[in-house]
Amino acid sequence: MTNVLNRPKWLWFCILASLILFSNYTLYRTSLFGPVPAGAVVGSLLDLLVVVPLLTYILILRKRYSLKYLGIVILAGYGAAYLIIPSSHLSQFSFLPNLLLYSEMVFIGFELYIAYKVLTKLPTLLKEYRRLNGINSLFLFIVKRAAEKHLPNNRIGSVLVTEFAMFNYALFSWKKNTSINQGESFTYHRNTSVNAVYIMLIHAIAIESIGLHYWLHSWNALVAYIVLIVNIYGVLYFLAEINATRLTPFVITDSHLLLQTGFSKSMYLPLDNVKEIKYYHGPEKFSKQEKNTLFDARVPDLIREKPMFEILLKEPEAYELMYGLKRKAGRIVLNVDEPERFFQEILNKTNQR
After folding, report:
1. Coiled coil: which residue ranges (predicted)?
2. What does the alpha-carbon distance between residue 76 and residue 61 come to, in Å, rounded to a whole number?
């Protein structure tokens, strides 16, 4: 019983959402329950437009992701209702599409207001960006530090900064090079196949998009375009990962170790919190419990090798994921292209000799 209750929240969400979809599909699309009562439509709409979004918020989004994704879930719920419930039953709720449209317009208006507040801070943000960029050209670190200073505790601001950084890396960074004027830099991707992994994923998305778009378009044009937009976003994300990996080496300064692995995760680690660095001699795979307190600074690879180093911390340190999401880790594992130089530099900076 304890093992069942300890299942991850996303698994519970999948189980409950599947039960809701299956029960509603069975009600309307099979003859198991006989004629469908007129009032059943109200219950189905509550299931798909209220219960599923609430489950999404409680089990998936809360304290993890931006609330803007709740609007996407509600739209998906309406799409499911449109596909599952026969039009003869939905006809009495002709106002529903307009209600959803107005709700989405209000939500978008709120985001535009937040964007306006960010734009009013833009001159200050640019000034802070230029100051930090003159030290080290680590774009994502710089825009995050500037946003934290001038837009503190602003979750929507963090989302906008993340998406701005993603578009910058994906579209405008192909000819840029890294400039490190303060500290020692260490690349971590040259001996891996990380670029091949991302190119394979982009290739798979492109092939899937072409075939799936035409198939979905013959069935439902709206769903086809939603899936196409999601796939384009996925391609931009992987392009951003390629450039971010190339342009953001690990950097050791006199006071901090800056760890940014590609585009999706980073840690700004004070060196006085480093307890010990050592060559890693543990197992290749980490348990679920270990992953909860571990910052894995390695890039994806076709053949995932054991980490080179393990860094133990005196106190758990926060690391950042996309959209301003944060976790804490008490140990770090990583690989670098110049392991001995990295090891000696950490020893020198932390006085572990």
Report:
1. none
2. 15
Cross-strand pairs, 323:
none
Helix (H, G, I), strand (E, B) or coil at 59: helix
- Decide the pairing of beta strands 294-296 and 274-279: unpaired
Average confidence score pLDDT of the chain: 79
Could you tell me whether strands 184-186 and 250-252 are parallel, antiparallel, or unpaired per DSSP bridges? antiparallel
In whole angstroms, what is the distance from residue 177 CA to residue 180 CA? 10
**Distance between CA atoms of 263 and 170, rounded to whole angstroms?**
10
**Tokens representing 140?**
């994502």
Q: Rounded to an integer, what distance in angstroms lies between the CA atom of residue 245 and that of residue 189?
A: 7
Query: How many whole angstroms separate alpha carbon 196 and alpha carbon 203?
Result: 10
Which single residue is written with the structure tokens 């809701």? 20
Number of other CB atoms surrounding residue 174 within 10 Å: 11
What is the rounded (10 degree) CA torsion for 226, 229, 230, 231?
120
* Its pTM surpasses 0.85: no
Residues 31 and 335: their CA atoms lie apart, in Å, by 59
8 A C-beta contact, residue 332 and residue 297: yes
What sign does the CA torsion over 213, 216, 222, 223 have? negative
Q: What is the pLDDT of residues 286-319, one digit of tens each?
A: 888 888 889 999 998 888 889 999 999 999 999 9
Torsion from C-alpha of 292, 298, 303, 308, nearest 10 degrees:
-100
Q: Where are the domains of the chain?
A: 2-106, 117-173, 174-353
| Confidence band of 78 (pLDDT split at 50, 70, 90) | confident
Q: What span, in angstroms and rounded, lies between the C-alpha atoms of 258 and 273?
A: 13
| Pairwise CA distance, residues 209 & 231, whole Å | 7
pLDDT reading at 97 higher than 70: no
Q: Is 96 helix (H, G, I), strand (E, B) or coil?
A: helix
